[in-house]
Amino acid sequence: MTDTINNLETAAHPENLRRVAIDPVSRVEGHGKVTLLLDENDRIHQVRLHIVEFRGFEKFVQGRPYWEAPVMVQRLCGICPVSHHLAASKAMDMIVGATLTPTAEKVRRLMHYGQIFQSHALHFFHLSSPDLLFGFDSDVAKRNIVGVAATYPEIAKQGVLLRKYGQEVIRVTAGKRIHGTGSIPGGVNKNVSIAERDYLLKDIAQMIEWSRDSVAMVRQLFEQNLDFYDSFGRFKAHTLNLVRADGALDLYHGGLRARDMDGNTLFDHYDYSHYWDAIFEDVKPWSYMKFPFLRSLGPETGWYRVGPLSRVTQCDFIPTPLANQARKAFMAFNGGSAAGATLGFHWARMIEMLHAAEMMQDLLHDPDLQGEDLVSTGQRQERGVGVIEAPRGTLIHHYKVDEHDQIVRCNLIVSTTHNNQSMNEAIRQVARQYLDGKKLTEGLLNHIEVAIRAFDPCLSCATHALGKMPLEVELLDVSGERVDVLSRSSDGVFCSPN
Amino acid sequence: MSNTFSLDGAEVPFAPGQTVMQAALTAGHYIPHLCYHPEFKPHGSCKLCTVKINGRTAASCTMPAEAGLEIESDIDELNDLRRRLVQMLFAEGNHFCPSCEKSGNCVLQALGYDLEVHAAGFRHQFPDRPVDASHPDILLDLNRCVLCELCVHASSEVDGKNVFGFSGRGITKHLIVNSESGKLADTDIALTDKAMQVCPVGVILPKRVGFSQPIGQRRYDQRPISAQALDDAPRPSTGASHD
């Protein structure tokens, strides 16, 4: 398998091959592009995922006062801004030397679980369920959330309301559904009032119930088409994620755990405040994105996978009963095969959504949410590192602040960057499995997008977008001349001028 | 003749010595304004409070009230011009509301909402302006300065310190601080100074408290500036301002 992957990475004479580019233009979240190099027999020699990730934040946050960072950097993303808001806040907690009060930590956790909940619901129901419910090469006009609503109205409704609930949790804790200001260095700027608590408690039982149904739905999808779900884009990878001190799943705080692809622990409960001793970022000439790797394994083999699949499979248990039960069933399914499948991401994602719902219920019953002690400070520090498990995986924020309170250095390693090489591996597997030697069609190309969507809804926005993103695939001959083009207009209509 | 003038068809009483702006606000009529502050002598620089008096334009903050004046303010022609002025102020500085700690409490932002500024209107100039973080307790972010001059007046007239002043002319006019080094740390400004309280935008800020006020509790979260300004105006019954 490794040989196959390497063959797809380095074509010996790329200049003699024709190039196919899946090049959508992002509307919301950066740009994703896939390039394929094929010979005259449609055999695939190279597959690469390019993500034009705008990393300017690391530069233009320089010179800004540190307390501005948690609000500024969340503009990196419109889907999971809370994750950046909280990761930056955690880094600034270190800068101000704070140990959070119980109220501050619990309000932040509630905000975070609300974020996990809404993002996972969005990702699964709005962006991925059309592929899973209708088939990867089904009618593209139907393959969107509107199509889901027409055929499976109850599922679509649940998806919309699940997401809405998570957004309401964010609004209550952060002030706005998107890009709030609730978390500040050393704590939070508001607690949760009794009225706000009761408003959220009103629907939490329903959210837990629907989350359980969602887990069951993914299981059913696996059961119905086991071989396909099991093998689609399957590859082995090392993993990285936070775990609690007792090994439990913890999405807000913990130590880093890395395991190799055979399950051997590389490090555990690693203090992320010096993450750079464990993780390094490699640069490749063909991508704007860096390629992080585990230092102990080196740049060639040290890449790893983050996100729901890594977290759910690599934690020792989930500290809420229903999600833990769901995890056990997931891990045992078909001899553990789903736990290593690329589409297993969706199953793990729904287990985390259930976990987030249970955590929100527990927190909403905790009187600390109504506490008045919101902010703490301590010994001022020069350097701050904040790590959190964002919906799509481990998120690292690292800042250096000078004596005038201005940020002088910033390094961000976002989930998509951690998963960069993993996503490349997944799409290479898919290309080899389904595209090699065949005339390319929209349906086949969508298989690649499905693999990407399993990882990352940012790219799903760019490549899916309710089936209406402008997209163009070019076929070039060996001299670089365009021989064919397939384009999808912004209204979702496919056309070929030839 | 009684001491009243007509503002958009309403009769507005005034006391001798009042300006059109003072009389209008006291009587519960809002005229958009930015550089006007009830505690300082008006200087009519922002021009947002421009009204038509007997067909001619004038700054209402400096115009003495006179009996019988026919004044138009809330008309499309003037509101269009005010909108353009606000757009120019946004384009001339670096106003990144999404990450500005003054958001929700900012007069310029509130005017933008109230005047329905929905687009930039002008190409942003992205001027290269410094942030002076040298003072241990106070941040000076000149990116947001709109040259209202309120800090200059507050520092000299109330604080007696002359911490702030202007330098340059025209488009190069800018706020400076009065110290040998040019740094705020080398002035005698203090957190308790009046100059700390008057900046309508996010230039002069106490450090380390940004974003501590939750969304929903900020000055313009619940009410537009056109309503808030009337709440703040002196009332004839008490003469006190409402906070």
Task: Name its key features.
heterodimer, A: 498 residues, alpha+beta, 17 strands, B: 243 residues, Ubiquitin-like (UB roll), three-stranded antiparallel beta sheet, globular
Describe this structure in words.
The complex is a heterodimer of chains A (498) and B (243). Chain A is 43% helix and 19% strand. With 498 residues, chain A is of the alpha+beta class. Chain A has a domain at 3-52 and 420-495. Chain A has a 6-stranded antiparallel sheet with strand order 3-2-1-15-16-17. Chain A has a 4-stranded mixed sheet with strand order 8-7-6-11, covered by helices on one side. The longest helix of chain A has 33 residues, at 102-134. Chain A is globular and about 70 Å long. Helices cover 20% and strands 15% of the residues of chain B. In chain B, the strands form 3 sheets. Chain B has a 5-stranded mixed sheet, with no helix packed on it. In chain B, strands 6-7-10 form a 3-stranded antiparallel sheet, with no helix packed on it. In chain B, β6 and β7 (138-141) form a beta hairpin. Chain A binds chain B through residues 63-65, 67-68, 70-72, 75, 96, 174-176, 179-182, 184-185, 189-190, 375, 404-406, and chain B through 96, 98-101, 131, 133-134, 139, 207-216.
Short description:
Chain A has 498 residues and is of the alpha+beta class. Helix content of chain A is 43%, strand content 19%.
